[in-house]
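TODO from last week: model CDP-diacylglycerol--glycerol-3-phosphate 3-phosphatidyltransferase.
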Amino acid sequence: MKNIPNILTFSRIILSVLLLAVILYWEKFMPAWVDISWRDFSACVVFCLASITDFFDGYIARQFKFGSVFGEVFDPLADKMLILAAFIGLLWLERASAWAVFLILSREFYITGLRVVAASSKQNVAASPLGKYKTGFQILAIAILLANFFPGGEVLLWIAVFVTLYSGLDYTFKYYKAIK
């Protein structure tokens, strides 16, 4: 029971690879009579399933105090891998702006670096609720863009960019307050 959060985290890594494989190799492995819309649906389902594991691994770890060093290191890594796989797929499908993807991923790498610096200086900077909103907007935008049957995915992606950058600024200010 104690390993369930870690199993969910590891499954998100596997699902990230599967997501990218579904997007990139669908036409090579599916017969020609299978409509391409099934690729979009399948990619969206894999992404949503992986996103759900992100919620449950953290919830279970906190609720039952099943935290681990593996979870602390690999949970954020699995999150980044999922978002990266989705964005690479969306760029390949030409459904996402390269600038939006660049800005979101740059913020993710920047905050990861900032967290490493904070941890090395024994600082613990708690994430704000903005981080949850950021994740929610990113997941919603990616799911809609992957599904490809709802309008407005590009608008949601740019809202996600704004919230992502804003939450990055918030985290940066919290970090600098903590080290002073």
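Done. The chain has two domains: 1-94, 96-179.
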